[in-house]
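Hi support team,

I've been running sequence recovery on a batch of backbones for a student project. Most finish fine, but this one hangs at about 90% for roughly twenty minutes before it completes. I'm not sure whether the input is malformed or the queue is just slow. I've pasted the structure tokens below so you can try to reproduce it. Let me know if you need the job ID as well.

Thanks,
M.K.
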């Protein structure tokens, strides 16, 4: 499969995620769950759009890789906020013990986004044959990817706990929706 086909698939996924984001935000009966799910889908759309365009525009590949990383760094906090939005307002959003992991994850993600934007995560490496490749900066790149993996694992664990505690029909409806995403 050529890079053009891969980029078209990434752009298609970005368009679907952006469309779903718009539908969720423009609903008349929008609530906190719709807005947080739209935030996650928006971050997914940004990451896929940047990855797709980065494959097509090799002259600006570093810029697009950084934009994709910004979208990827926003996903763990958005996933944690979805878990909080599923809970009733009296259970999760007002309880500080439930809110602090999402706030810390969002803050760390924001700091890593700033580091990504300022060039501390990716850089261009010149290869011996005159070609260039995008590579990770030693410490910040590893921290960013470790954050994404651990943050997503924390978000999925929280979703599992929230969905396990919810009632039967709602639980299975939400699980099928989230598994489909």
């Amino acid at each position: 499969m050529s890079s053009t086909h891969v980029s078209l698939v990434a752009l298609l996924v970005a368009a679907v995620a952006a469309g779903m984001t718009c539908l969720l935000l423009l609903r008349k009966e929008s609530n906190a769950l719709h807005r947080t799910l739209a935030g996650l889908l928006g971050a997914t759309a940004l990451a896929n759009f940047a990855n797709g365009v980065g494959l097509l525009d090799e002259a600006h590949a570093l810029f697009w890789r950084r934009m994709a990383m910004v979208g990827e760094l926003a996903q763990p906090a958005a996933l944690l906020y979805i878990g909080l939005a599923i809970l009733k307002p009296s259970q999760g959003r007002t309880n500080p013990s439930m809110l602090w992991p999402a706030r810390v994850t969002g803050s760390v993600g924001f700091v890593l986004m700033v580091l990504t934007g300022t060039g501390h995560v990716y850089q261009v490496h010149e290869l011996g044959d005159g070609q260039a490749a995008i590579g990770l900066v030693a410490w910040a790149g590893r921290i960013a990817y470790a954050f994404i993996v651990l943050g997503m694992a924390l978000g999925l664990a929280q979703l599992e706990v929230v969905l396990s505690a919810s009632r039967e029909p709602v639980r299975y409806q939400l699980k099928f929706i989230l598994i489909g995403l």
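--
Follow-up from support: It reproduced on our side and the slowdown came from queue contention, not your input. The mean pLDDT is 85. No action needed from you.
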